[in-house]
Amino acid sequence: MSVQPNTEQAQGEGLAGRDDAGFSEVGPLGPPYPIDARINEAGRLEVGGCDLVEIARTHGTPAYVFAENDLRARARAAVAAFGPQTAVLFASKAFPCTAAYRLMAAEGVYCDVASGGELHLALKGGFASERILMHGNNKTPAELQQAIDARIGHIVIDSFDEIERLSEMLPADGPRTLIRVAPGLKPSTHAYIQTGQTDSKFGIPLSQVEQALKKAPNFAGLHCHLGSQFFDVDIFRAAAEVLAGFGAKCEVVNVGGGFGIPYLEHDHPPRIAEYAGTIRDAVAEHFGADTRIMVEPGRWLVGNAGVTIYTIGTVKEIPGVRRYVAVDGGMSDNIRPMLYQAEYTATIADRAAAKPASDVRVVGMHCESGDVILPEVLLQDPAVGDTLAVPATGAYGHAMASNYNGVTRPPVIFCADGAARVVVRRETHDDLARRDVE
Ligand SMILES: Cc1ncc(COP(=O)(O)O)c(C=O)c1O
Which one of 191, 208, 221, 435 is separated from 15 by 20 to 30 angstroms, measured CA to CA? Predict the structure, then answer.
């Protein structure tokens, strides 16, 4: 797809509008590009003031390029939209690198970790321990002890086994606990990323919550997470109502994350202010206006800030069938299309303003026929050596990357005001053998 400037936005009526602080969720190139992406005078795609073709030349490909100002603006916008009574937690599974933790901590965001490893990174990234909450449907005793020793703020209890474990381990002045409830609600999203249904590995089923409430040590409140990438704001009202049905006295109510983002040009998710207003009203209505709220957006904070760049290595025409464009990455840097048919768009960064007229399939370099990044996309006459940019890859790309086929995982590059800095270096071949024991 080409990235035609969004004229509506250019005329001052952004697709998503601007909030009081002047934050617009959609930049001049429209969804799903970073807020400060633009087409420069050379007709190339620029992110954070950096020309992506130049970044590809200097740093190699594939690479995860992030608009640092976009990350900051979204963190600020979320904190402002929810207000002082709500802790906005960065669901760090979406983008666990110390530079991201550092940035989020500096912007007043809290943090959710889903393992001992993420806890380690969050602390290394500078999060105050009391601002960290730990999740997981099967935390090991060692991870629970790590969380207790670090004196994190909250642990989310996911099972009766965990209640037993924590009852023995948790000191009275240790982390407070939330009970994760499986509220029996299904947001409209891919089945693999629905989590709030009764038939789920996550959370305590509704029929057993009362029993859990009697036993949970250091109880502070209830939690649920309905799923990911859904646009249905009203489902949060239903969630608050279900949680309130137990009559539990909650200091805090956590309704999870999952706020949808634009992956494609025509995706128009609700604005953050809509999520915030609905969630605040629903919790106030069912639990009282003084109840503290927690939310856990992951992709909303980081997804649209990231663009993956690749180099096109081959273009193969199968007469009467289709044209395959192969890039130097694939399922090792973005598994989402293969895991749950996640859709993306793309553009040729070298000719971003040109009209896209070639209908192609973009594939990776891995030894799997399923290694298809974009099954069908219109591109600007893709040629060998071009830089292909895939936007909205800031969440769960770096996080889920692998070394399949012995590839070295890509660097993470933060771009702001025309300067690029590598915050995670590219792996080397030596890294690949580093854990091997002779
Ligand atoms: C408990 C919990 N909270 C928050 C999130 C973040 O979801 P998203 O990145 O869709 O906002 C997840 C994602 O899996 C999750 O499991």
Answer: 191
Strands, E, within 199-301: which ranges?
204-205, 219-223, 252-254, 292-295
Mean pLDDT of the chain: 93
Q: Ligand 1, from 155, 158, 192, 225: best to mutate by most atoms within 8 Å of Cβ?
A: 225
Cα separation, 71 vs 74, whole angstroms: 5
**Phi, psi (rounded to 5 degrees) for 344:** -135, 170
Q: In the block, which residue shows the tokens 């071949």?
A: 429
- Residue 168 backbone zone (phi > 0: left; psi -120 to 50: alpha; other: beta): alpha
Ligand 1 within 6 A of 275 CB? Answer: no
Is 367 an active-site residue? yes
Q: How far is the CA of 259 from the centre of ligand 1 (A)?
A: 9
Distance CA 14, CA 34 (A): 14
Confidence of residue 25 (pLDDT cuts 50, 70, 90): confident
pLDDT tens, 250-268?
999 999 999 999 999 999 9
Show the domains of the chain with their CATH numbers.
7-67+303-433 (2.40.37.10), 69-301 (3.20.20.10)
Residue of 295, 296, 300, 304 with the most ligand 1 atoms within 8 Å of its CB, for mutation: 296
Q: Distance, CA 176 to ligand 1 centroid (Å)?
A: 20
For residue 298 and ligand 1, the question of a CB distance below 6 A is answered with yes
Mean pLDDT in residue range 216-234: 94
d(CA 240, CA 256): 11
pLDDT tens per residue, range 43-100: 999 999 999 999 999 999 999 999 999 999 999 999 999 999 999 999 999 999 999 9
Check if 296 has its Cβ closer than 6 Å to any atom of ligand 1: yes
Claim: this prediction has a pTM higher than 0.90: yes
Atom of ligand 1 nearest to the CA of 135: 1
pLDDT for 8 equals 38
